[in-house]
Amino acid sequence: MPDATIAPHAPIAVNATAPNALKDRPSMSHALDPSDRFEPRHLGPDERETAEMLALVGYASLDALTDAIVPKGIRLSRALNLPAARA
After folding, report:
1. Domain annotation covers residue 81
2. Residue 57 sits in which domain range?
3. Would you say the C-alpha torsion 5, 6, 10, 16 has a positive or negative sign?
4. Do the domain assignments include residue 82?
5. Closest CA to 54 of 38, 43, 40, 66
6. Does the pLDDT value for residue 40 go beyond 70?
7. Nearest to 64 by CA among 79, 54, 49
8. Count of domains in the chain?
9. How confident is the model at residue 44 (pLDDT cuts 50, 70, 90)?
10. What pTM was estimated for this model as a whole?
């Protein structure tokens, strides 16, 4: 059986002038910064935006839209018994 040998290869050249990929990345301290303000995300649409949406989908009110899309079998027919809102 012939003697198998592995030929040595030239070392891989490292480009010392290549930019450091980690150096150019933003720091992790900014990764969790809010990307927008809290209020617009949680307060919902204003009256003008709601009216525009209703006109676009063809309903006169949110109640009419709800009646059209929520099956009667899963709707609550009475008001919720909730405590007063906190200021």
Report:
1. no
2. 33-74
3. negative
4. no
5. 66
6. no
7. 54
8. 1
9. confident
10. 0.46
